[in-house]
Specification:
By secondary structure, this protein is of the alpha+beta class. It contains seven helices and four strands, in the order ααααβααβββα. Bound molecules: FE2/S2 (inorganic) cluster (FES).
Length: 158
């Protein structure tokens, strides 16, 4: 990890104002922000560790735990909720044995719940990476996830 951190730090001056871009680059390099990396970043930009941890946990774009190969985001906005998103959510959690924000043991999927993604006409909707799947019901969702796990090159349905 040290080598990767040093290669990120090499493009910065170690100024407090560089905190966010440094965290972003470190996350890109490591895939997430392990505690040790956050401590090193704090040292580098000369800020208290607590402050850097605070920033890393505040912004949704930063991840303090390793993430799966594929990111499932289920919309829990109003339109999706009304059309049964919570039943879909239950099935996803069941099939993958994860809670919200968790990653499967095989590191294949991370499950997240998000606010409206602007595809309400297709409610309930989820995305897996950059593919959108709409008009879901629990069975269709299970099939989609299983198929995606077997062959992630399968196309999404808009
Ligand atoms: S509420 Fe789900 S896409 Fe808008």
């Amino acid at each position: 990890m040290e080598e990767q951190l040093n290669s990120v730090f090499a493009s910065y001056q170690g100024e407090k104002s560089e905190l966010i871009p440094v965290l972003q680059d470190v996350q890109e390099e490591l895939g997430y922000l392990p505690e040790e990396a956050i401590r090193e970043v704090a040292r580098f930009v000369r800020l208290p560790e607590a402050k850097v941890f605070g920033v890393a946990t505040f912004y949704a774009r930063f991840h303090l735990h390793p993430r799966g190969e594929h990111i499932i985001r289920l919309c829990c906005g109003t339109a999706c909720h009304v059309r049964g998103a919570s039943k879909v959510a239950d099935r996803v959690k069941d099939v993958l044995s994860v809670g919200v924000g968790e990653t499967t043991e095989d590191m294949k999927f991370t499950y997240e719940e998000v606010a409206c993604i602007g595809a309400c006409g297709l409610a309930p909707v989820m995305t897996i990476d950059d593919k959108t799947f709409g008009k879901l019901d629990p069975d269709k969702t299970e099939k989609t996830i299983k198929k995606f796990g077997e062959d992630s090159s399968e196309g999404g349905e808009a």
